[in-house]
Known about the structure:
This protein is an alpha+beta fold.
Amino acid sequence: xKLQKETESQRSRKHGKWYDDACGTAFALELVGERWSxxxxxxxMFGGRRFSDLRGGLPGISAKVLTERLESLEAAxxxxxxxxxxxxxxQIYELTRWGYAADEAIMTLGRWAATSPNxxxxxxxxxxxxxxxxxxxxxxxxxxxxATVAGVAIGREHFIVRVGEGKLLAERGEEASADFELAAxxxxxxxxxxxxxVPFEALNEAGFAFTGDREAARRFIDCFNLPEKIV
Length: 231
């Protein structure tokens, strides 16, 4: 029996390659549904990263799989490669404008999954994952009139979080005039402080460090809670 020859249009078709389904949800899974793909997008939500940075944020991924996923995301128009100028002279991966637009979908998916009784918030977190969780779990109603600038240091990575007018903005960087700073060697320690409401002093042995306005920090932490479980 002679196999039907694949047409040029079938070879070049990007939508429908897995499911043959016009649904946008099906297309989204074709774009980022392979293992690790969506987490790579998550890691890039706060700016470009080197290959080694991505492996550091996703310790379970192999170099081969990371290379394959980055190539797929590039082909889909979600990620681009860029060469940094001297003296850095390093290649980084960045999200395209369309890639950054996935942030709302990722946060909505994360918020939904966190309502599962099987979600374990004590598992390890990357720095980008923790920072995206702040954007996801921020409660504007609880923030009220709070206006503050927080510094967040996770290992060697630094972020600035600004809260004001019921909104939260988070980005990479350092702010000398921050009202306070929360620092820890790994993100799970900060998660214990923010979501577990563990007293700062109880986390000192885990490497937690605090400087600045304690009352502002208390009000800041009060803006975050994990959603109730749906049983």
